[in-house]
Amino acid sequence: MSTTYLTKDLIRIIEHNKAVHSADNLDAFIYAAKRNKILLHILRLANINSKLRQVEEAKLAGIIRLVGEVGRSLQDLEYAFIKLIKPVTYAPSDVDILIKIEDYNSIAKRLRKIGCKPLLIEPYNAIFQKNGINIDIYVHPSIGGRAIYLDGRKLLDHVGEAVFHGNRIPALKPYAEIVLVAAHAAYKEMFYTLNDYFTTKTWIDKKSFKLAEELYITDSLKTSLKLNMSIKKGLTEAPIRLSLHQWLKIFAKKVARDPTTRGTALKLLQLSGRDMKLFLERFTRISY
User: Cα separation of 138 and 272, whole Å?
Assistant: First the structure.
């Protein structure tokens, strides 16, 4: 079975909430689901009680506990959980929060107080860790911690209360999450998954386009919509990896239009040899 056919089948299964019945193709489905960041959703639909299912459920349970801890420790501050709540079930690999620069020291102190250890400090983000799970703190979403592709302060104007597996938390409103999804996929990850596909398909609205224009990421939002259409029609497989040429084209437009990105883009040249290698590997990888 081709990967494209699997992609179309995965979409049909999730949209119609159908169980997976074909044992012959089950391994292929699981492989495709993992690459597309919808693995736990498919495992639950297939009612697979395997070691892999146990691992994914445990990962999600760990994320839920950590989100609750972090949320309680930061409850009187203005911040937002990002890239966490989606219309499909999945186990995030880490916890991402968007903060104001003036709250950084206070947040770092509070995270340390609940047992989070600092791993990395960069100009626009930092990484803490607890129980093997990373907590990524962003002042501005950026590439390599250097080139800003979204103004974090403006994103924080679009936060509402959300519920994540029983935890009431501040999170980007759905129309704003779409803007982040599009920008993150296009500028940072150069990778578009079925997780992105369903998030875009489910939550996009007129407010998304208005915010995208304000944040100079209309091109990346349009790219997401084009990829969604291509995936829906079965013209391409998912996940989709942007080529270096495609990324340079879309990022050049971003630099030309966004003064914040333009003012920080040259900092990408300051990436160390190892970090530059990791950055370039994004154009050849087959999954996250």
Answer: 20
pLDDT at 1: 47
Contacts of 89 (CB under 8 A, 6+ apart): 38, 40, 41, 44, 60
Domain that holds residue 88: 3-281
231 located within any domain: yes
Percent of the chain exceeding pLDDT 70 equals 89
Q: Count of alpha carbons within 13 Å of 280, Cβ hemisphere only? A: 8
Neighbours of 201 (CB within 10 A): 18
CA R_g for the chain: 19
Q: How many domains does the chain have?
A: 1
The set of residues, in sequence order, having a beta carbon less than 8 Å from that of 81 and lying 6+ positions away, is 67, 71, 95, 96, 97, 98, 162, 164, 169, 170, 171
Each residue of 244-267: pLDDT tens digit?
A: 888 999 999 999 999 999 999 887
Q: What is the dihedral of CA 273, 276, 281, 287, to 10 degrees?
A: 120
- Predicted model pTM: 0.90
Asked if residue 257 is part of any domain, the answer here is yes
